[in-house]
Amino acid sequence: MDLYQELILDHSKRQFGHGLREGHLAEVHHVNPTCGDEVTLRVHLDGTGHDATITDISYEALGCSISMASTSILAEEVTGDSIDDAMVVHEAMRQMLTSRGKNSGDEEVIGDGVALAGVAQYPARVKCALLGWMALTDALAQAGVDIATTSQGETA
């Protein structure tokens, strides 16, 4: 088994941030209708605007190992980041996962997220991998963050 498969399995079994915690500013529930994956995600912020820090991401997830691993990677990679920095990671993941295999990802930006690069070759699985990431943008919007004006300059 290669390192990337091991990372995906490890994140799906030992999920970083798993378990809903109190003190959140926003909670969202997302469902992938094509396969039934679900995630309820809570975001905790310290500060306001784009300089706010994501102090915690907690979630409950049901679904395939790709969906659960990706949400675990999300929680691990952006907890402690500013909104702008988190949106840079989000956009890098989105670009990698929607590239149909032409973008293998930048480990410096997305960390363990590079383990999911192979998912891009399977369009039906891309939604699984993006489920938690899309829930994050909705949770941030619900918390009052204008995602359209992040340092990425586009809606995530």
From TrEMBL:
CDD domains: IscU_like (cd06664). InterPro entries: NIF_FeS_clus_asmbl_NifU_N. It comes from the Bacteria. GO terms for molecular function: iron ion binding; iron-sulfur cluster binding. One of its GO terms (biological process) is iron-sulfur cluster assembly. Residues 4-128 form the NIF system FeS cluster assembly NifU N-terminal domain. This is SUF system NifU family Fe-S cluster assembly protein. It comes from Janibacter limosus.
